[in-house]
Queue: 3 jobs
Job 1
Amino acid sequence: MKITVPATSANIGPGFDSVGVAVSKYLTIEVLEPADAWHIEHDLGDIPSDENNLLISTALQVKSDLQPHKLVMTSDIPLARGLGSSSSVIVAGIELANQLADLKLSDDDKLDIATKIEGHPDNVAPAIFGNLVVASYVDEHVNSIVTDFPECAFVAFIPSYELKTSDSRGVLPSDLSYKEAVAASSIANVAIAALFAG
């Protein structure tokens, strides 16, 4: 069994924590034979190869008594560089549990689980649905709209250093004035209309 999940670009324009698009770079998980303990073969640096890997810890959040397996993880998504690498792993972990335990989760079920784990839907939604997704997460409820996104070329600046989402959020202001909030809302509305218009 193979699980393939795309990279994503999110926080598009003013769509903070709510707008994302799938990008054609991929994380692939190959599920091999059952084992006594989880083991992930990969060449992705110093990420864990056991149940401490985000893939396995996510799968175990979904179904705690999964049979351990040997896995092979490959990815051409740059790690911690703004293309949703951790979201792709979370989505793959949910799908791993779904397949191994035959949970029959719908895509909306997967989005609910992924958003609760990630804290926002902007990367996990397009990793599940593909295309362009606009989503909200209010009072632990996710709403999402998926629309086709035209084929286009993306230019991504990939820095030579890792930047975790939690660190980048530290530079954001904690409050916006009413005037700033109105401006941000109007800009977001125009940006979403432009994206949906293609």
Note: DSSP finds six helices and six strands in the chain.
Job 2
Amino acid sequence: MDIVEGVLDGIEAKYHRLIADIKAKQAEAKIENEKKEFEEAYENLKKSSKEMAEELQRKTISAWEKLEKRAQDILKSS
């Protein structure tokens, strides 16, 4: 009977190790997935920030050109 109990204890210990390994793999996969999501969000933020900066630059140039034209028109009419 001691042999059977020893075998059962060994099987139970192996079962618990396998469960722990599975949980560790699941945690690693979850961390990797969250890392990918963060990286995608970061890249989208960088792209969005760049687009906003480019739009601001276009609007600034346009406003400056309008201001220069207005100044030239005022000088011509004087």
Note: The two ends are 114 Å apart (CA to CA).
Job 3
Amino acid sequence: MRVTVADTTEIKLPHLEDLWKWPRLVNAHLPEIERECLEWSASFGAFDAETQRLVHEKGKLSKSSTVIYTVLEAHEEGILTGKRSILDLLAAMCYARMPRGTYKVSPEFVRTGCDLMHLFFMFDEHSDRASPEEVWEQAAIQVDAIYSPSKPRPRGEWVGGEFTRQFFLRIPQSATETFKQRFRDTWVDYVKSVAQQAEHRSHSRILDLESYFPLRRNTSGAPSTIALYEMYMDIPGEIRRHPLILELEELAVDLIVIANDILSYYKEQAVGDDEHNIITVIMNQFGLGRQQAIDKAGELSAAKMDRFEHLYCRVPRWVGPVDLDVQTLVDGMAQCVSGVLHWSYESQRYFGTRGLDVKQTRRLRLLPRRKIDGSHGGQQHGQLVPKPGPVPVDEDSMVLVANIVE
């Protein structure tokens, strides 16, 4: 049940990315693999023509930013020219680098990351339009596909089964069995949580913070996103389950969740798509106004950032290659947070073509709340990859929802 509070239509965003010490990076291999990923995703016919167009939509920066900096293996700063698919750009920003040494950033690494973002998007698009019973069936199909990738999918089955099966088969042969099992575990948690959220959505149920975080950590898809950093690793269980490493991972996931919820909120609330969002949760639980809830979420994020940085400097050291594995994994957690923070302004998904202006001014003017037609309850489960569709526009003035407050 939603608690209604009289509120302003103007908000100010917290400086999340300014508090995060990890830089904005883009994987330099993206131009090599992007076309293949897009063609692979399109081959399933999983989307209607309009949605497929949005999958291929390019992220466009405002005129004030004409270059996108990348990190090259030679530690040189280069320029990634052209415009990138928003899904592939997200992967390239989350999987921008690995420490020099045993592992280097390779095309197959970022290609798998791009495939993953397309898989997220596919399930998000289909589950958002399905009943809870249908989403549970979709989840079961994906679990079967990821555990039996060599088994052909039944004729006439939901397209997500073959999409998931091929994703797993496209994982590089050099990936370790340890990684594959860990990824399966995170994916099972993810698809089940999406089905659980579909049930909440059908009843317009808003959770409290204590119930929200355990579910949202999985619906975000962040654990699976982070798991890709272990693709070539074989970290022993007793090390992977070290309390400090587990806490760092949970902090990184929470930071991704909070950032995504804050930065997507203006769009979600405009179309009645905000029940699975920390801003609505805080407003509802504490009876706060919109700006107060945003400020509270920002403060929570800042505290978690401080804790992450504190623990990052205290990661234990081990003898042998596993030490580099652990350092790579923990740095990857941080890079995923950075990728989500900066991508949110550059992808056009949340702020249209004025993302970098929003990033500078922090101020937004929101449109009145609207409803989505043709979906089960109008709420998506809020994973990392956003729901397709243009940024809402004021029909009278044709001003973006993200119109900057003068």
Note: Residues 207 and 281 are 6 Å apart (CA to CA).
